[in-house]
Amino acid sequence: MENEIEKEPTYVLFGNEAIRIYKMSLKLLVTSNHITYKVGAYVDVSKFVKEAQNWDDFIEINEDDYLKLKISYLRSLNSDKPERSKKRSIFKFFK
Fold first, then answer.
1. 3-state SS assignment for residue 49
2. pTM of the entire structure?
3. In total, how many domains does the chain have?
4. Is 56 a member of any domain?
């Protein structure tokens, strides 16, 4: 039987401006809608290096901050989608 070593992921925040705001306040970064950043959890170094080449800077963060930023990012993606109107259109009656 092979003896496998389970690797703990490393949590990373990408983006120079996001890092500066993160160092001041996580809450400020979460509420900033105009900041471009990405967070990731990496076990494989090659995947991290490939992603790091796309960004101007990165910093290691803890798991709790990673989860908060990931949730905030996903919420921002959902809020960018246009809402469908729940009102019934009067024009449907004339078809």
1. helix
2. 0.75
3. 1
4. yes
Q: How far is Cα 89 from Cα 94, in angstroms, rounded to an integer?
A: 10
Distances (CA, A) of 81 to 27, 84, 91: 23, 9, 24
With H, G, I as helix, E, B as strand and everything else as coil, classify residue 43.
Answer: coil
The amino acid at residue 87 is: K
pLDDT digit string, tens, across residues 53-62: 999 999 999 9
Residue 37 lies in a domain: no
Each residue's pLDDT tens digit, 44-85: 999 999 999 999 999 999 999 999 999 988 887 777 555 554
Q: In what order do the strands lie in the sheet with 58-61?
A: 38-42, 10-14, 58-61
User: Domain range holding 66?
Assistant: 17-32+48-72
- Does 26 fall in a domain? yes
